[in-house]
Amino acid sequence: MSSFNNARYLRRRVTNVITTILSVCTVAFALVFLGWILWTLFSNGFSYLTLDVFTKNTPPPGSAGGLLNAIFGSLYMVLVATLIGTPIGVMAGTYLAEYGNTGWLAPATRFINDILLSAPSIVIGLFVYEVIVHRVGHFSGWAGAVALALIVIPVIVRTTENMLQLVPSTLREAASALGSPQWKVVTFVVYRSARAGMLTGLLLAVARISGETAPLLFTALNNQFWSSDMNGAMSSVAAVIFQFAMSPYEDWQHLAWAGALLITLFVLGLNILARTIFRPGPISS
Amino acid sequence: MSNSNHTFNFGAFFDKIFRNSTMFFAFVVFSVIFAIMVTLLVSSLPALKTFGLGFFFSDTWNPVTIEFGGLVPIYGTLVTAAIAMVIGIPLSFGIAMFITELCPNWLKRPLGVAIELLAGIPSIIYGMWGLFVFAPFFADHGQPWINDHLGSLPFIGVIFAGPTMGIGMLTAGIILAIMVIPFTSSVMRDVFEIVPPLLKESAYGLGATTWEVLKNIVLPYTKIGVVGGIMLGLGRALGETMAVTFVIGNAHELSASLLMPGNTISSALANEFTEAVGDVYTSSLITLGLTLFIITFIVLACAKLLLIKLAAQEGKQS
Question: What pTM does this model have?
Answer without folding.
Answer: 0.90
